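dumping this here before i forget
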Amino acid sequence: MKEFVLDSDIFAAGSMNKKSRTGLQPGDAESKQLPRGRLIAFASLMLPITAAQVPMAAFLPALYAQYFGIPLAALGAIFLAERVWGAAADPIIGILSDRTKSRFGRRKSWILIGGLLYALATVFLFFPTLPFVHVTPVFLTATLFTFYLAWSMIQIPYLAWSGEVSSDYHERTRIAMFQAVAAALSLLLILILPTIIDQISPKNAVLKLGAMGGVILLSLPVSLLLTLRSVPKTLKPAAPPARLAPVKTLALILREGALLRIFFSDFAVSAGQGVRGVLAIFFVTDYMHLPKLASAVFLLQFIFGVAASPIWAAIARRLGKHRTAATGELVQVAINLCLLLVVPGHVALLLGLTVAQGLAQGSGNLMLRSMVADVADRHRLETGTDRTALFFSVFSISMKTGLAVAAGVGLPLVAWLGFNPALPVNTHQALHGLVLVFALGPALAHLISAALIFNFPIDEARHLEIRRALEEEVLHDPLTGN
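structure:
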């Protein structure tokens, strides 16, 4: 596999019209594909990263409310504050990662240290009945503070690294596809255990938390070893970015219109998925009166999610990333609106929509992640500076703030509408409010996401021009000796 060495200090937009010495055309990606085994190893880090997503979005708020007595309003405030903190940490880690110089690699060092802190925070968060742990709002706040910091230390350098493994438009989608499949498998595994526990002891919150935490702790050391050894060579970085004051960094980001469109599109996707996730257990348990199916619904969705990423990757080769993302979001709008038709007892419709949601869920997340690297390429061409990790940190902020809004707004909103998960039976009006928020909130969010991303300015042809210009600059850069 040929890799382009993109380490020139000066890039000229005028090279855009020069003829490429490689003669590359759109779709010429086969010769640049990474070996499947290396991609599987590289993507394995998604297992412990993703294993926490469903528990954090759906199980932890519900379980801490139902079994540890923390009010919904307090939980909403805590999760909102902690996700805002996690979002604030992302750009700092992104900038530091871009500037890190280490013989182990500027990404690997952060991932390893973050992994150690991640394991420690997981012990406290998922095993709250340990003798030295006493569950209080203060304890939950401190634990989440550490957990999100560690999560950022792994995720931001890892996502930036994934954009540096290849410069090819479709190969980046393929890398993101492997990561998405690994994430779906992680979610599948993390949901099998509570589903089994629900059939034996549906109210055993401690056992559910411990089982999900065990998946994280067992998969973390193995995946760290595989990922850190998987890709010996990546695109050589350009000159590290100059130190910028926070105001100038913000101004730089605000000038990147394409990045902002990805940010707000992903924010909407994450908010929609977050509202659905944080209310799903309440919907199935209290509205559908099917507590034993609460975990099974998540499990069914992610079983089909395993197959979704390759399907959407294939569609993207025909439609392009941004049109594929918009199409997937519109499909999710329809699915969520159909949830208004689900009534207690209509299990078949609920399961059908769950399957459809699983098949549709990977569209926006997969394509948007791949598109960030394309925007970073354009920025590098125009400025000569590599800010890949910073750009991916902005992308990560959108996900975390979207999920924060989902928890910080969704939970208090259904509480304001009268829903209380601690009551044995809620009123019809309260349950109706729960259904409206559960269905209409995500539908509106996915519609906004589709509108933002539909006419994205960087498609395959445009990205090929950018790659050609970057290559021409390297071939003619006097600093390379050519």
